[in-house]
Amino acid sequence: MRRWFAQPQLADEYETFAARVLHYSLLVLMFIALLFIPFASSLVQLVFFPALLVVLGYCYYLLHSGHIRIASLGFVSGLWLIVTVAAFSINGILNASLTSYAIVITFSALFFSSRTVIIFTGLSVLSAVILTVGDSAGFLPLSTTPLYIADRFFQLTALFTITGILLSAASRVIRSNIGRIRKHEETLLQRNRELEAEIAERRRIEVDLRISEEKYRLLFQNTSVMAAVYGQDGEIILLNNAAAEIFGGTVETLIGRNMRDVLDLEDAESAIKNQLDVMQTGKPNISESQITLPNGREVSYLRQVIPLPDPANNKASQVLVLTTDQTEKHRAQQQERELALAREKNDFMVEFFSTLSHDLKTPLTVMKTSIYLLKRVDSAEKRQQKIDQIDMQITLLEKYIQDMLTISQLDHLPVLDNSDIDVNALISKVALSLQSQIESRQINFEFQPDVNLDCVRGDEEQLQRLFMNLIENAINYTPNGGRVWVNTKMVEKTIEVDIKDSGIGIEADAIPHIFDRFYRTSKAQGFHDNGTGLGLAIVKSIVDMHKATIDVKSQLDEGTTFTIQFPATITPESIQQQP
C-alpha cells in the first residue's frame, strides 16, 4: 500500500515535479468525486461521478506503474471529455464544469509540448463557442439542475485545489532551483575569484618567464662557451655569438645553414655522425679532438653533445652542443711538458757530468799510477802487470763512453731500422761474443731456443745491444762457477725471452729503480766495480721502443730472472720512437 501513496521519483527533475503534481491532483479529485456522489440528483450525475472516479483511478494506477506519459494523456483527455459531455448534457454554457477546461489546459501545458497545449486550448474554446451559440439559439436540449450551486462549488473547489497543488509544487521547485542557482552563483563567484587569482599568477609567471628567458638568452648569446643546437643532418638551428665567431660568421647568417658549409668536410661528417649517435641512443657524449676552422686555424676543443627530446614522440630530434676551446690550455700544457723535459734533461746533465767526472777519475788515476810505476819497475813481469792494468782501465773508459753515447743516441733516435729478426740467431751471436767471459768466469751457460719461434719486427743493432747488456749483467753478477740460462718460447701471440742467473740477486726495494740511469745497488757495487749504471737504462729504452715489456723477479743470493715479451707481429709504423 505504501507504494501506491508514495510520491513518484524519476531520473529527470522536471518529470518528477510533473508526476508529483499529477499524483496529488488525482488524489484530490478522487476524494472530491467520492464526496459528491451522495448529492447526485440526476441520472447524468450518477453516471458522471463514477465515470470520473474510474478515469482518475486508472490514471493513478498508470502513474504508479511507471507510465507517466500515458497517465498524463489519459487524465487530460478523459477530464476534457467528461467536462465537455457534462456541459453539452446539463446547463450548457452555464455549466460550472466548464471551468475545468482551465485545469485541462494547465495540465496539458505541464505534461506536453506547446502543440498539444494549443490543441486542447482550441478544442476548449470551440466547445464554449458551440455551447454559447446553441444556448442562444435554443437548439441544444439543455436544462438547469437543482444542484447548480453544488455543481459550481464542486468545480471551483477542484479548480482551486488543483491550482494550489500546482502552484505549491511549482514554487517548491522554483525555490529549490533558485537555491541551487544561488549556490551555483556562489560556486561560480568563488571559481571566478580562483580563476582571477590563477590568471594573475599565470601572468606573473609569464612575466617571470619572459624575464628568465631574456636572462638565459643573454647568457646563451654572450657566454664564452660555444653553444649551438643542430638538427638531424647537421642543420644549424640555433647558436650563440661565440660559436658564430669561431665559424667566421654571425648568428643571423649562420642559422639555417649546414655544418658542411662552415667546417672542413671530414670534420663536419665526423661531428654529424657523433650527433646522430647521440640522437639515436639518447645519451650525452663528451669528446676531445681537433678541428680545422674556415680560416685554416687548428683548434683543440672539448665538446659535449646533449640530446634534446621531441615532446611529440619523446625521441631526440635535435642536439645541444657545448664546445670549449682547449687550444690555449693544450699549448700551456705542452709548454709545461717541454719545460719539465728541459728540467729533466738539465738534471740529467748535472747528474751525468757529476757521475762522469767521478767514474772517469778512478780509471784515470789508476792509469796514471800504473804509468808512474811502469817507469820504475825493472822486471818484465811487473812491467806486463802494469800494462794489463792500464789496458783494463782503457777498456772500462771505452765502456763508459760507449754506454753514454748509446743512451744519448736512444734519446734522440727518430726512427728504428726495422726488419724481421730471428731472436734465436741473435742470442746465439751475443753468446758467442761473450764466450771468453763465460769461460774465464767458469760460468755454466745454457741456451734453450724454441725452434718454432716467430720473428720479431725491430732494429737488429738495438736488440743485439739489449741481449748483450742483459746476458753480460747475468755473467758479471754471478759468482765463478755459477749458472746462466737463456730460453725462448711462444706464449700465444707473444715471443718470450727469459734470462736467468744464479747470481747475487737484487734487493726487493731496489727493483723499482734498477732501470734508472746511473743506479747501482750497494751489493752490485761491492761485487762488480766495473759497471756504469747505464746498462739496464739502455735495456728499458730499447724495450719501450719495440712496444715490448720487461719483468724482473729476484731473490737475494739465489739469482735474478729478466723476462722480455715481444709482439709476434708488429707493423713498422707502430715501432716508431715515442716522443
Please outline what is shown here:
The protein contains 18 helices and twelve strands. A hairpin with a 5-residue loop joins strand 3 and strand 4.
Overall pLDDT metric: 76
Tell me about the largest β-sheet.
5 strands, antiparallel
- Secondary-structure class: alpha+beta
Separation, N- and C-terminal Cα atoms: 113 Å
Low-confidence stretches: 570-579
Radius of gyration using CA atoms only: 61 Å
**Strand tally:** 12
Descriptive report:
- Helix content is 60%, strand content 15%.
- With 579 residues, it is an alpha+beta fold.
- Residues 570-579 have low confidence and may be disordered.
- The strands form three sheets. The chain has a five-stranded antiparallel beta sheet with strand order 2-1-5-4-3, sandwiched between helices.
Give the SSE layout.
Blueprint (H helix, E strand, L loop, with lengths): L1 H4 L7 H24 L6 H22 L3 H22 L10 H12 L2 H24 L10 H75 L3 E5 L5 E4 L1 H6 L4 H4 L4 H4 L2 H17 L3 E8 L5 E13 L4 E11 L1 H48 L5 H32 L6 E4 L1 H11 L1 H6 L3 E5 L7 E4 H17 L6 E9 L2 E8 L20 H6 L7 H11 L3 E7 L3 E9 L12
Parallel strand pairs: 7-9
Antiparallel strand pairs: 1-2, 1-5, 3-4, 4-5, 6-8, 9-10, 10-12, 11-12
